[in-house]
Sequence to fold (240 residues):
Amino acid sequence: MINTEILASGATLEVKLQRAAQAIFQTLAEAPSDAPLVLALCGGRSVVGLLTAMRSESASQPKDLLKRLHFFMVDERIVPLSDPDSNFGGLKKQLFDQLIAEGFVSEGQLHPLKISRESAVSDCDKYLSELEKLGGIFSVVVLGMGEDGHIAGLFPRHPALSISKKAFIDFYDSPKLPPARVTASVSLIRGAKLSILLALGEAKREAWNNFQSGEVSVADCPAKLAREAGRCLVVTDLVG
Fold:
């Protein structure tokens, strides 16, 4: 885990999340000045604290950097964006609306994954095309680790783990409800310059132990994929 830093102890969770937010903006600032910047975000409860830290950190960032930033989803539920289950809908309320109101970003920098069952394959292809126009990689990807060790829509032993190409993948047999979802592929996550892995809450203890174990495979703990990005920063409140 040479490229992996674990923020586990010695500071409050709020401070660790602030450090993660700073690392995100530092990575974005290191990109060439004319390069698009893509931040891929997960849904779920774990990301709320990081989004709060990012919103605070945004105030001290150069405006030209913020104007080059594009927000993508690393996973989504196959529901309308107005549905309470929509990951993008939740992030819009938690982060995007305030950033837009404060003038840090514009609506054009937001890239929701608009998808329906009837056109899921073409919708996923269109979303990949959007990403390709911006360089085809995630500058930073934010991932929450589930109780079973999953990240994004990549669940243990799920067929989506075997799809090696850059893609957004629709599937209808998620072990977690709702069953119809989309996920970024393994290749997209591995290709990120920085991954932020959030391993928060005692319910994640077994998954955290698996993440640290050299005897547990990626197939059984997909969260280990986060370590295969250029750099990985892990934020956890599970010490030991």
Remarks:
- Strands lie at 4-7, 37-41, 69-73, 75-77, 140-144, 168-171, 181-184, 194-199, 231-236.
- The mean pLDDT is 93.
- The chain has one domain: 4-236.
